[in-house]
Amino acid sequence: MAIHTLNVRFGTISHGWLPITFGIADSDALVVASDVPADPIAPLVSLARFLLSAELGSRDVEFHLEPEYCTLTVTKTANSDIDVRLVQPGCDISQSGLSCVATATQIWRALRAVDSAVRAAIADNQWSWDFPTTQMDMLASEIETANAVR
């Protein structure tokens, strides 16, 4: 049986803009998120941690596109699956039945891949927010535990 996950890929940071590609339902949606007024990275770490928790319900992550915004909504059900919906101007895609653990792991891997680019962008005054290292370390531990339990 195939494990279905939300795919996340980050592009190159430039002047406070971070391209994020979300692969949902055999489609790719590009979100070019601003680091003003809020960090678009830390909420993704929080979302991945929510996926690994016992808590059920929905979480929204808003990305500021200046002047518009994009919302990624994840709903976690009792059977450890998630439903995902991404809404932004001109785009409304969704997918059901994704794996909580696989999606959290995929988000963690994508964030790890962009870690050094964020640090370089901060040094070049291209990015306003520190990389959430402590939360990423906690997420890595939680993924390890979740994979051991599976």
Notes on the protein architecture:
With 150 residues, the chain is an alpha+beta fold. The chain has one domain: Secreted effector protein pipB2 fold. The protein is 35% helix and 35% strand. The longest helix has 24 residues. The model has no long low-confidence stretch (mean pLDDT 93).
At CATH's second level, what is the architecture?
A: 2-Layer Sandwich
| CATH class term | Alpha Beta
> Cα-atom Rg, whole angstroms?
15 Å
Portion of residues in beta strands equals: 35-45%
Strands of the widest sheet, in order across it, are 4-5-6-7
Order of helices and strands: EEEHEEEEHH
Count of DSSP strands = 7
Number of self-contained structural domains: 1
Q: Please identify the structural class as seen in this structure.
A: alpha+beta
The average pLDDT value, as a whole number, equals 93
Largest sheet, if any?
4 strands, antiparallel
Q: What's the short version?
A:
Helix content is 35%, strand content 35%. The chain is an alpha+beta fold and 150 residues long. A hairpin with a 4-residue loop joins strand 5 (69-76) and strand 6.
What tags apply to this protein structure?
150 residues, Secreted effector protein pipB2 fold, four-stranded antiparallel beta sheet, three-stranded antiparallel beta sheet, 7 strands, globular
